[in-house]
Batch of 2 targets.
Target 1
Amino acid sequence: MKVAIVASECAPFAKTGGLADVVGALPKYLAELGVDVKIFIPKYDSIDEKKYNLRYISDIGEIKVRVAGFPRSVYLHTAKLPNSAVDVYFIDCREYFYRGKIYTENWDEDERFILLNKAVIEICQRLQWAPDVFHCNDWQTGLMPFFVKESYGWDKMFDHSAFLYSIHNIGYQGRFSKETLAKTELKEEHIQFGGALEFEDSFSMMKGGILNSEVISTVSDTYAHEVLTPEYGAGLQDILRSRQSDFFGVLNGIDIDEWNPETDKLIPFHYSKNDLTNKKKNKQFLLEKTSLKFNEKIPVIGIISRLVEQKGFDLIAEEIHDLLSLDAQWLILGSGKEIFEMLFTKMNSTLPNKCWTHLGFNNELAHLIEAGADMFLMPSHYEPCGLNQMYSLRYGTVPIVRKTGGLADTVQDWHEYQSYEKDTGNGFSFVDTTGVALHAAVKRAIDSFNIPDEWKKIQLNGMNSDNSWEASAKKYVRLYERAILKRK
């Protein structure tokens, strides 16, 4: 089976969130299952060519790709996905992808990803490689089925290529003005009222991907049910319900090679579920690094996140004074809306013995927080899958989450599960989107932390969880097979 994974980002080359982690991990496990998989992403100017040994493919040379009526120059580079034999192809178009960042609010944001979609097809033609499945991800690749079946329908090499379209976050839909259709050179009927690309009098790439792919997936079972409702569907719930028989939830896994407390190169002390002694040493190292006083009897609560409402930071702000009155220390790593950045910066300056904040992202620090913190807070309003809660479980860092999406699928509340599945809980969760509910969950976690035997049981339950990619990769293979059969 040949699979082309097309996305706007891929770790470790270019990353803003969980999509990159998925694209950087899933192909390794697919390859182990015998799948011939290739990855296609843009070559952003932020990608370190020397570090990742990118190689220019001179045999292909310049490719002219039409966008908005003009031919754009595209070149191709390749490298191996680290720790694998998987080929990654980088689509080099300086005009569109040398912007200093992955996503922009520039007037031609639609053109950037129209080019990505078309360029992948042109490259497959030149490689003489016809995928059995194009695995497309999020709005940036929602036009791929249209281009393959319509614009490039003349090329019989794609006659049997099927499409799996994965929604990582339905809140970002690739919506532009109707004028975008002219830039694609697709049929006018698609943007007419009720057309496959028309949504609320605008052009929607995500709607197109949903309606024109053989199979649709999203990144957890709970999120797959949530997005069929008005509360979580962001307006597309009716469109998804029309494809419900072809819509599936597959929980993301984590890269257990990169996130492993027994071998992690970014933490000073390794440990395992058989011996948690060094976790306390990591805690002490982390607190010294962040200038907080170490006290093994006071829990450290870690946060690594985009600082935005979706991630529940409005709930933290609502309850901030009562949260800070709890006997705990706080470590925050992230960036986002100015109001939340200012809140945590103020916490840092007014309570330097209790709070530490780093605005931005630092991968080494992220690993240190996962290894050194006692708890990890994720109070998201919605969370399609979430990865940090799974990293936390693996590191014996007990997650406190809102019960939604992938958080609900991976974190079992200690007290809830005590009542009918004795002692199987691995974290703490709350349902109501209120600061009070958040505070109550944090308080319960702190109370359990103060009972050492109970706390160790919760930690070990989490560390015994299997959130690797192996099971999820097998589910994707079954979805690929389903898409191929439907295309036939």
Note: Residues 191 and 265 are 51 Å apart (CA to CA).
Target 2
Amino acid sequence: MKATSSFGRLDAAVLSAFTLLYVLRVAREAVTRPFWLDEFFTYYTVTMPDWAGLMDVLRHGGDQNPPLFHALTRLSVWAFGESEWAFRLPAMVGYWAFCASLYILGRLIGGSLAAGVTALATPFVTGAFYYATEARPYGLMLGCFGVSLVCYRLYDLAATPEQQRQAGLGLGGALALGVALHYFAIIPIACLWLAELFRAWRTRQPRWGAGAALALPAGVLLYNWPLLREQAQIPYWKQSLSWLELPDFYRWMLGTPTCLALLAWVTLFRFLAPRSKRDDASPDERPERDWLLLGIILALMLPVGWMTLMKASGKTMFTPRYLLPAAGGLAILLARAVQSVKMPAARQLALGVGAILVASTLWAVLQPWRMSPPSVLEAVAKLPNPEQKIVVNALDYFVLKHYFAKELPQVTYLYEFMTYRQPADPKRGLRALLQNPRTPPFEDKEAFVTRHNRFYIVCHKFHEGDYIIPRIKQYNFPLARETAEYLVYEYIDE
């Protein structure tokens, strides 16, 4: 079966309709969700008074991403002002490009409109969609990865050396741009290398052009190496790693109601709808099997392989956001699963997927369009002694100081207390952000305790549950308040 490479008005209509739904969905998310800790790293880095200061913050690990992401975000903020959605606009555009690229890829590897629509919907319904509206580089990185997958497929389909060169340049350029936005874009590139090596072994004919394109991102890493080496001096925030985080990742990515609905709908048609016959053993079909393998590598082997590598090396850098390209692998697998569904079942399949997208979007956008208050606010508001200092962790401190500085001036943060490991160098890590005059100040723990013999300590039940809360309970400090997520103790030193 040969995939079609022609696109017409129906494809344009599908992408236009999806874009409308996408804009409505991300617009609400972008304006109703407050910034969280990682986004404040972006905020205080991007709003440095000048570019030299911004680069100094990056060199000292205030944010550990490449400067290109901050340049694009700075441009967005300069153009549209300092609103939540302006900081998140690059991610919104990048994630849209990811979805649109998967639609094109679904059409190129599956041929049918149903395959394209299914691939288009996949990243929209998974847990990965959160990163479409986070002011971090993951949305942009995914957009580059999606474009690279399209170029990789066009490299397969190229009929002339010139077309192959163009596809190779697009592939290498998109991957290099992805690495320039986030260093961990190298993870899905390793998956492409694995697929390409398997193809070379199967055909006994290495594709030197594709290999050169896949090697191009290494040049970006070398260019950023001096900065990366300095940023790598910051200890990683995560202290431990469990194998149970692997199934947790899949629950997070696949466990949304809309994703479960999509999986059930696709499964129904995959096994019950009539399908066209094809000869899986034919030579023309073997390259299509390579894409099935790539889908498996991205969706299954990427998370498992990364977890295994982290465990073997003693590292703890396993978090869902590093594994977001797995959503692309899932889209490939679902597109392959429905590519042979015959009409009119294929039309019904596509309409059902569209209905899932419309229903999930309407459910979201019909909710109130107002900023959701952070959950910590319930814990710190109207405590018994309103003048008493309130000590919170770094995550809650930035949120409260940004949104409620006037209402809660007594909130403070004690450096190196209730936070992840920080470097000994006073200019590195979180303290590098203090170069921005907007960054709320940190207090020295020992000096603070000397000056104050009574204050509140706000503990998150999950973040501080293993270490801080047991220590506080040993001193029998009175519990001032308990919420669903927080415990507030009153420190008393008499």
Note: The longest strand covers residues 454-460.
